[in-house]
């Protein structure tokens, strides 16, 4: 792929969960920036994702279309495709393409965003490689803040963004080894209450207190519980799950970001590279980080392992968040 002609058009399908799309797009932006002779054309495997990622600045690509337009893009020389072994990508997209078009995909090599990002030092991403909001996204963000009742003065005080992503059932990350939902809700409620009282902090909660309806089921992937944390009403804002890219952008404004293992928290670290605390990661997720040598969340292999077998992870978490808040309030 390094010995390319003077100009070549390369395609790629963004697919999977929102975090997958974000990491795939980050890698593809780096690839386009590293190959001046490449014109990138992107496609979305899902109409929901296509609409949501209009808020992301994908201007490094010449176009971003629904996958059904692939056959019309006859100028594409080949596809640089991430996670090509993914079952949904094959079922929903690849198996519906013509043999001629499918020949432009290398289906023998499963390129992983995690590996690409590590190999090209994209964790965290340098400013020129980072993904920001598009013009549409920048216009939509203040409307989201207004809808959620977020006043500008809240950013003058210590703020914490928290993502709830409790694993259940089958998925890419096994749910085995997690503490119970009820226990974590109780522990996090008590922890954030203490932090609110100590620092006069405001907590933004992502992925909780959302009622799944027919109107938002596809948008939210039915991942969010309708319950929330037991926190003072004036010190917490529950985000509605209306836009993954916009809520990611808003979350990274917080003094400290914390949350469960997820593409959302990974994207926070990729964007910030600091002020991030991972909460109660499932053993399977920790094993994947170690296996792929992923420099996420500033954690070494030793600290990942000790986090699993050490005592009182909630106490360590509270101490670390306190340190980060203290650093900000005293600087």
Quick recap of the structure?
The chain has 331 residues and is α/β, with parallel strands linked by helices. Helices cover 39% and strands 13% of the residues.
Give the name of the CATH architecture of the largest domain.
Answer: 3-Layer(aba) Sandwich
Detail the poorly predicted runs: none
Query: In percent terms, what proportion of residues is strand?
Result: 5-15%
Could you say which overall geometry the principal axes of the C-alpha atoms support?
globular
Give the SSE order as H and E letters: EHEHEEHHHHEHEHEHEHEHHH
Helix content: 25-40%
CATH superfamily of the largest domain: Glycogen Phosphorylase B
Query: Total helix count?
Result: 13
Q: So what's the CATH class of the largest domain?
A: Alpha Beta
Spatial gap, N to C terminus: 47 Å
Q: In CATH terms, what is the fold-level topology of the largest domain? A: Rossmann fold
Number of structurally distinct domains: 2
Number of strands: 9
Radius of gyration: 20 Å
Averaged pLDDT, please?
91
SS class:
alpha/beta
User: Biggest sheet, strands in spatial order?
Assistant: 7-6-5-8-9
Major sheet details: 5 strands, parallel
């Amino acid at each position: 792929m390094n010995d390319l002609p003077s100009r070549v058009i390369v395609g790629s399908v963004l697919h999977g969960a929102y975090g997958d799309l974000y990491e795939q797009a980050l890698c593809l932006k780096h690839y386009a920036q590293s190959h001046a002779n490449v014109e990138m054309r992107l496609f979305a495997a899902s109409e929901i994702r296509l609409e949501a990622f209009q808020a992301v600045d994908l201007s490094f690509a010449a176009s971003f279309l629904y996958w059904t337009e692939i056959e019309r893009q006859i100028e594409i020389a080949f596809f640089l495709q991430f996670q090509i072994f993914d079952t949904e990508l094959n079922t929903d997209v690849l198996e519906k393409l013509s043999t001629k078009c499918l020949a432009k995909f290398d289906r023998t090599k499963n390129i992983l965003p995690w590996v690409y990002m590590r190999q090209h030092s994209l964790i965290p991403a340098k400013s020129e490689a980072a993904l920001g909001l598009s013009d549409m996204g920048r216009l939509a963000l203040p409307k989201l803040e207004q809808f959620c009742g977020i006043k500008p003065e809240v950013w003058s005080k210590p703020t914490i963004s928290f993502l709830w992503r409790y694993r259940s059932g089958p998925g890419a990350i096994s749910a085995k080894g997690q503490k119970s939902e009820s226990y974590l809700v109780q522990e996090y409620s008590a922890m954030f209450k203490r932090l609110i009282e100590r620092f006069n902090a405001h907590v933004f909660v992502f992925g909780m207190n959302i009622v799944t309806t027919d109107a938002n089921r596809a948008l939210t992937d039915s991942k969010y519980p309708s319950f929330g944390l037991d926190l003072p009403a004036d010190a917490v804002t529950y985000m509605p799950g209306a836009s993954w890219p916009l809520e990611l952008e808003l979350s990274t404004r917080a003094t400290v970001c914390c949350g469960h293992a997820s593409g959302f928290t990974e994207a926070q670290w990729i964007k910030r590279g600091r002020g991030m605390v991972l909460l109660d990661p499932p053993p399977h997720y920790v094993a994947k980080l170690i296996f792929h040598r992923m420099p996420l969340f500033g954690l070494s292999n030793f600290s990942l392992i000790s986090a699993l077998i050490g005592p009182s992870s909630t106490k360590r978490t509270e101490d670390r968040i306190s340190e980060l808040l203290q650093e900000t309030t005293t600087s």
